[in-house]
Amino acid sequence: MNLDEKCFYIPDTTDNIAYITEQLFNQQTQSWQLAAANYAGLKKALTREFEIDGIRFIIQFNPERISSSSAKTDAKSISERKCFLCIENIPNEQQGIPVFNDFFILVNPFPIFDKHLTITKLQHINQSIADNAETMLNLAAALTDYVIFYNGPKCGASAPDHLHFQAGNKGFLPVENEFAEMKNRLQTYKYKSVEISFASDYLRRMITLQSNNKNDLLEIFRKTYGIFAELQPHETEPMLNIICCADKDEWTVHIFPRAKHRPSQFFAEGDAQLLISPASVDLGGVFITPRYCDFEKITKHDIIDIFNQVTIGKNEFDKIICEIGSQI
Question: Does the reported pTM lie above 0.90?
Answer without folding.
Answer: yes
